[in-house]
Amino acid sequence: MSPVLPQLTPRFAMRRRPVRRSATQLLPFSPAEPKPEAGALAQGEAGWRKASLESPTADCPLPEFPTSHVPLVGIARLAAEAPAADTKRKSLEKPEYFLLPVKSILNKCDSARVPFDWTINPYRGCEFACKYCYARYTHEYMEIDGGEFERKIFVKQDAGALLARDVERKYSHASKASGYTKAEHIAIGTATDPYQPAEREYGVTRACLEELAKREGLSVSIITKSNQIVRDIDLLKTIAAKSALTVNITVTTLKPRLARLLEPRAPRPDLRLAAVKELREAGLHVGVSASPLLPGITDADGELEGVAAAAKEAGAEWFWSGVLFLMPASAKQFLPFIEEKFPRLAKQYCRWYTKNGYAPEEYRKKVSERVARIRQKFGFVTRPWEGERPTAPNTQLSLGWDTSALSGEVLGIGSSSAG
Predict the structure, then answer these.
(1) Is the pTM value of this prediction over 0.70?
(2) Which residue ranges form the domains of the chain, and what is each CATH number?
(3) Mean pLDDT of 281-300
């Protein structure tokens, strides 16, 4: 299997965030098939800028980036000094693995736009190499270009011991967001897939699950594109018996060739759906995410509905999908990919995403309404965490915060790690 990987691009010490602007026009998309025969775009930022000037999309070049350097500090310094991790893999296509010393595994999430309080990402970087992955920006915190997100994988050390300490010191069974009535929610896999190939060798995810299995009254969710999760059914059942646990499997398309193009090293869609079935048969609560929805690529009539039907047949209890969201680090990789493989969509993607990470509001609204109709048609529940968070022993008056008010679109943005 030959992965579709971008060439290395220079590191930059600073990043420029896009300026949000409202979309002024909603362009209709014409579904397009991948075109491998299309002329390959020159790789790297310089190649993209040159190709933009010579193509109809010249009005949307990527942002300029400063080239000055500053001394490495914090996580960037730790990454630069990280020793190579031993690996038994012999393939020349394997990524580089590094051991990353960290101070914490449980990371606080303060955003009111997502329905979780804490995140656990056992690794930094993800070998699945999803072309659209929003989490590429996390490598830039280490002063590593986002194009190396799938090439340089950092394995977090001492995960189990750190998580035990973090839960004791940080975690609360009465979250402020719920009005101190329900336990805080921990989401595993929001910025990197916890069951990418590295997990077979290093077992960081399993070490975290082993620690969570010792606790009671937690609220936990996992999101992944990998069927490797069935390896841990024993631990998942133990956690589910003591705490609230939900599992989310991402399936963006049922087309194997398209999935391989978009998510080069992730397991096939049928294997993911088989994992949904096996997890459900084990008595676990499982849903399917079809995020991100890619305009003009995976949004054709009947395609999203087909994913939902397959999810329902596999036993999924809920379903959601959100439109593609592009961080600048992701746009640098994804827009040249669109230019090469889907040239008929290149101009529209540039118009929508070069200066704004979101698709136009009108398009997102239509997708949200479509997902609502799909849920109703197949009888999916819309609130995977409703009724799942354990109730705190000492309740107080509710402050009125309700995770059910969050749309599937917001949830979908957090699922690309899953890339």
Answers:
(1) yes
(2) 75-413 (3.20.20.70)
(3) 97
